[in-house]
From TrEMBL:
Transmembrane domains' residue ranges: 12-33
Taxonomic lineage: Bacteria, Pseudomonadati, Pseudomonadota, Gammaproteobacteria, Pseudomonadales
Quaternary assembly: Part of a complex composed of FtsB, FtsL and FtsQ.
Membrane topology according to the record: Single-pass type II membrane protein
Name of the featured protein: Cell division protein FtsL
Function description: Essential cell division protein. May link together the upstream cell division proteins, which are predominantly cytoplasmic, with the downstream cell division proteins, which are predominantly periplasmic.
Amino acid sequence: MKGIKQGLPGGTWLLLILFVSVLISSMAVSYVAHWNRQLLSELFQQLSVRDKTQAEWGRLVLEQSTWTAHGRIETLATEQLNMHVPSAVDIKLVQP
């Protein structure tokens, strides 16, 4: 009985280490794939928010240009405030 080794043979340890490594590697691949899907989903959400914000910005710029159009301001000044463009006789220059 003295010639029988106790424990596992040397090749078995290598096989066990390889099995555990493959198991850990497969779990890591699964985790990274899930994480990648989450980040991709978040990216698409952020791109959607960006596109909506850019569309709103374009509408606001168009609205601002409409509100500040010279013809509109002149019409409002004439109709609502009873303003008119002064004639050359009405203009007086003041020396500093």
